[in-house]
Amino acid sequence: MNEEALFQRLVRLLLDYGQQQKEGPVVRYLEPEELGRLLELDKPAAGDWQQLLRWLELYLEHSVKTGNPGFLNRMWSGANLPSILAEMVVAASNTSACTYESAPVSTLMEHHMLDTMLGLVGFRDGEGQMNTGSSSANLVAMLAARNEALEQAKSDGLWQQQRLCAFVSADAHYSLDKAANVLGIGTSQLVKVPVDHRGRMDPAALEARLEERSRAGQRPFFVCATLGTTVRGAYDPVGAIAALRERYGFWLHGDGAWGGAVLLDEELRRRHLPDAALLDSFTWDFHKMPGSNLVCNMLLINGRRDALRCACSAGEHGYLFREEQETHALDLGVGSLQCARRVDSLKWFLDWKFFGREGLAARVRRYLALAEYAERRVAELPQLELVAPRESFNVCFRYRAPAGEEANAFNLALRHRLHRRGEALVGVGWIGDTLTLRLLITHPDFTEADVDRFLEKVVENGRALS
Ligand SMILES: *Cc1c(COP(=O)(O)O)cnc(C)c1O
After folding, report:
1. What is the Å distance from ligand 1's center to 172 Cα?
2. The pLDDT value given to residue 426
3. What is the pLDDT of residues 423-459, one digit of tens each?
4. For 4, 338, 347, 420, which has the most beta carbons within 10 A of its beta carbon?
5. Rounded distance between C-alpha atoms, residue 378 and residue 398, angstroms
6. Which residue from 358, 361, 367, 371 is spatially nearest to 397, judged by alpha carbons?
């Protein structure tokens, strides 16, 4: 088969897939053994394009249809068409976005979008990098903060240094624990600050812990405010936390992986994240609410222009990064932990150009309106209940378990049933000891009728289980 015929077959497959996504089911679920048999993973296929196409077909057939209205599990749904086109071109042109030499267009687009996003957040004299998601952005932010707090950390490690400690809310993302592990801080030195009744970090509790650790001779070097928590969608109070920074001297990072999208809209920003410009760094996933292809992330740094290079560069005369080259200052790989860097700039650049800030802001407003609608409907349906009042985009609810049934186990079984039947895939989480179903709406075509259909399915399946 020649290349053109292959591409044509692929386009056909993708168009059919688009149709399947719309019509559902959300997944044709098979148990791993059964799917394994179907995939014939041992089958040889040297030079056999037909067999490769067959595997592509099977891949699509059994993938989770993330663009289906029943996909409500994660923080994205489907992907923007401009970013899909971008990903195809990125795959075909296959380069590494580490130097201007190897990726000239991407390098300029990434710098351009970094500047644009720095301006949007309200950071001045800043810098940034596209990263492999907010987990690694959180790690790099903590690394930059660590090395700023302890100048010797990069060269000497943490041996015989003042003991460091970092602070997050009890509802923060687990990637901060991973970062504390990787960076030698120690997971027990990542202090989990209690949240208030709305799921926001309690600044008085933070202050008490900062004081306690400082008195014990430790160095509080890093506080991460979660801006849109994973389960409840709560925003930690940046202003109140920033007010403690002068006294304790920590780096204030914002994890806006999910909730950063409010910055697109002035009104939502005022309501949820008015003090974004006070942060020292900020991470935001464009592959979540803004709908870019996975993964698409930026880590942005405020008021520093070489924190990333200081934290991440290695070796003075790397074979890739030659200081004598005129374009050296543009090389994004120097300030990155990666060597090969996937080109992520093209998809965000094209999405941004095509939809514009206002287009994306309208989308975010719509998601919020749909979350409000869903919350209202849950309150109206006698079989359902809200587990917590809605803070932003996350609707935490569950089925009222019938008498004699344990509510957590019942709702887990309900979720399992919805998934296995291919009707819906919805997130779960915990608020204290209470298991909650978590509805997140992140598909631009989702409507109130889709909310109703989904809740009806929950009710129907709950009845069937009762
Ligand atoms: C999604 C999320 C992360 C992890 O981001 P990845 O891009 O998946 O690595 C971290 N923090 C919060 C608050 C998130 O919602």
Report:
1. 10
2. 96
3. 999 999 999 999 999 999 999 999 999 999 999 999 9
4. 347
5. 9
6. 371
Rounded Cα gap, residues 372 and 370, in angstroms: 5
Of 291, 320, 351, the position where a domain reaches its end is 351
Q: Are 219 and 248 in the same domain?
A: yes
Q: What is the extent of the structural domain holding 23?
A: 3-68
Q: What is the CATH number of the domain that holds 318?
A: 3.40.640.10
- Tokens at 441, concatenated: 């709406």
Half-sphere exposure of 104 (CA within 13 A, CB side): 3
* The residue to which tokens 């240094």 are assigned: 161
| 366 C-alpha to ligand 1 centroid (Å) | 22
Same domain, 52 and 93: no
Residue range 328-368, pLDDT digits in tens: 889 999 999 999 999 999 999 999 999 999 999 999 999 99
Residue with CA at minimum distance from ligand 1 atom 7: 133
Q: What is the DSSP letter of 300?
A: E
In a domain, 345, yes or no: yes
What SS3 state is found at 410? helix
Q: What is the 169 CA–ligand 1 centroid distance (Å)?
A: 15
Residue 171 in contact with ligand 1 by CB distance below 6 A: no
Which position has the token pair 């492999």? 132
User: Ligand 1 pocket, 135 CB below 6 A?
Assistant: yes
Coil, strand or helix at 398:
strand
Contacts of 113 (CB under 8 A, 6+ apart): 130, 298, 345, 348, 349, 352
Q: How many whole angstroms separate alpha carbon 361 and alpha carbon 289?
A: 10
The total domain count for the chain is 2
48 and 101 together in one domain: no
Pick the atom of ligand 1 nearest to 287's CA: 7
Distance from C-alpha of 376 to C-alpha of 395, rounded to nearest angstrom? 10
Q: How far is the CA of 290 from the centre of ligand 1 (A)?
A: 14
User: Whose C-alpha lies nearest to ligand 1, atom 5?
Assistant: 134
Convert the pLDDT of each residue in 210-251 to its tens digit. Answer: 999 999 999 999 999 999 999 999 999 999 999 999 999 999
Segments of the chain scoring below 50 in pLDDT: none
- Give the full edge-to-edge strand order of the sheet including 190-193: 127-131, 297-301, 281-285, 251-255, 219-226, 164-169, 190-193
Ligand 1 centroid from CA 289, angstroms: 12
